[in-house]
């Protein structure tokens, strides 16, 4: 059986070929995709952010065809471990596994964070005349609206879906979110002007301000016709999930949530598959009950922390949120070693305390980035992006595409 167009091999060069050339060794030929062959990419993490201090760690990306590449999608896993000079420990394990013939899809998003981060209240506000700041990887100097917090966080998301028609899957997921040892650092109970958004929300809806959980099950429907989940040149991705968080599962309060996501990719030039116009849309709504403050939908808290480039993580949060982004991806060098992107995004969120509705205010962002081919066998890139929003800007280092 012939390989799909997305797996046909071109004369590509990755960063390991460059290193071999510098050391006088021959470039390694691009492998024909085979079942059971693992592709390993390593990305050291060394940097500084105002929120984290100096950061050191590493990311490991592993991809493999569990079944025949002709009829099985590429499986992947990403492990990230970081330590910071502010006594933070960040552990992440995320994976997407397609079993032979795509009969089953299994995914996980698991995190253990000993963390601190500014929060900025709910909804979209304060975009005009806001102090301009600059940071790396989403870190930033504090503005007047920033409310620093320390908290520890456990996330365990495990999903198993069964294919019932070509590219269509259905199944269930286990969702566990636990925030503990929450320290609202700018809270001053003796002064009304120092009551934080976290405190006001938690007290308004009956949540403890130091510890809360949201645990439950989700019913999922997914469509995935992407040619490659690491860097798609064509296809579509749809994900619908309805989440139940009963008290019997350990949730602080009972609630339900609806999540939807849509991605699509259009190849612009057949002779250059890497020239792609990509779109990404997602939304989350609390449909009944109340979710804890730190578990409300927020930018850059998606699975791979890639939404909201141009703003810091958690800058926008609400009980209803809608996010959209478009990105043009293009080749810079003919050997595909270097590529580039330009992107536009927009966020809107609601605030139940002020009755601000979704779409009543919009937060735009934009930017551009460089791509360096790290592994030509699975299209893993090193990504360096500059993003700018209203009052904020940042440089973002990552491995793999934003979406």
Tell me about this structure.
This protein is 4% helix and 51% strand. It has 403 residues and is mainly beta. The chain has a 17-stranded mixed β-sheet. A hairpin with a 3-residue loop joins β1 (39-49) and β2 (53-64). The longest helix has 8 residues, at 15-22. The two termini are 29 Å apart. The model is unreliable at 1-9 and 130-144 (pLDDT under 50).
Search tags:
403 residues, mainly beta, 2 helices, 4% helix, 51% strand, disordered N terminus
Oligomeric assembly: single chain
Overall morphology:
globular
Instruction: Tell me, rounded to a whole number, the average pLDDT.
Output: 88
What pattern of helices and strands is seen along the backbone?
A: HEEEEEEEEHEEEEEEEEE
Q: Spans with pLDDT under 50 lasting ≥5 residues?
A: 1-9, 130-144
Integer-rounded radius of gyration? 21 Å
Gap from first CA to last CA: 29 Å
Estimated helix fraction: under 10%
Number of strands: 17
Q: Sheet with the most strands?
A: 17 strands, mixed
The number of helices is 2
Q: Report the β-strand fraction as a percent range.
A: over 45%
Structural class: mainly beta
Topology (SSEs and partners):
Elements: H1 15-22, E1 39-49, E2 53-64, E3 75-84, E4 89-98, E5 104-119, E6 133-136, E7 147-165, E8 168-184, H2 197-204, E9 212-224, E10 235-245, E11 255-267, E12 276-289, E13 320-331, E14 338-349, E15 363-375, E16 380-388, E17 392-399
Parallel strand pairs: 6-17
Antiparallel strand pairs: 1-2, 2-3, 3-4, 4-5, 5-7, 7-8, 8-9, 9-10, 10-11, 11-12, 12-13, 13-14, 14-15, 15-16, 16-17
């Amino acid at each position: 059986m012939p390989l799909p167009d997305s797996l046909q091999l071109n004369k590509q060069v990755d960063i390991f070929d460059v290193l071999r050339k510098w050391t006088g060794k021959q470039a390694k030929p691009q492998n024909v995709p085979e079942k059971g062959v693992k592709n390993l990419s390593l990305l050291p993490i060394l940097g500084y952010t105002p929120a984290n201090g100096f950061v050191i760690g590493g990311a490991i990306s592993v991809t493999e065809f569990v079944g025949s590449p002709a009829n099985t999608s590429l499986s992947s896993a990403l492990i990230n471990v970081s330590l910071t000079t502010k006594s933070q420990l960040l552990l992440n394990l995320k994976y997407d596994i397609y079993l032979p013939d795509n009969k089953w899809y299994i995914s996980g998003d698991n995190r253990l964070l000993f963390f601190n981060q500014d929060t900025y209240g709910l909804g979209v506000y304060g975009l005009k005349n806001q102090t301009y700041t600059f940071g790396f990887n989403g870190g930033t100097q504090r503005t007047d609206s920033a409310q620093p917090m320390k908290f520890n966080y456990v996330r365990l998301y495990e999903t198993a879906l069964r294919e019932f028609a070509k590219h269509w899957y259905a199944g269930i997921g286990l969702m566990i979110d636990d925030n503990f040892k929450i320290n609202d650092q700018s809270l001053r109970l003796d002064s009304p002007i120092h009551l934080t958004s976290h405190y006001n929300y938690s007290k308004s809806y009956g949540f403890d301000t130091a510890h809360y959980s949201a645990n439950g099950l989700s019913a999922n429907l997914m469509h995935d016709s992407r040619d490659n989940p690491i860097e798609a040149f064509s296809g579509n991705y749809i994900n619908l999930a309805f989440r139940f968080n009963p008290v019997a599962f350990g949730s602080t309060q009972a609630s339900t949530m609806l999540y939807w996501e849509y991605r699509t990719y259009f190849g612009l030039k057949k002779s250059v598959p890497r020239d792609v116009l990509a779109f990404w849309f997602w939304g989350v709504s609390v449909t009944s009950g109340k979710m804890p403050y730190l578990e409300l939908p927020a930018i850059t808290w998606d699975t791979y922390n890639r939404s909201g480039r141009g703003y810091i993580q958690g800058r926008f949060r609400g009980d209803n949120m809608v996010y959209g982004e478009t990105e043009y991806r293009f080749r810079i060098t003919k050997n595909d070693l270097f590529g580039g992107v330009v992107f536009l995004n927009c966020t809107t969120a609601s605030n139940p305390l002020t009755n601000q509705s979704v779409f009543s205010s919009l937060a735009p962002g934009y930017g551009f980035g460089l791509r360096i081919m790290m592994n030509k066998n699975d299209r893993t890139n090193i990504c360096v992006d500059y993003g700018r929003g209203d009052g904020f800007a940042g440089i973002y280092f990552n491995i793999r595409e934003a979406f």
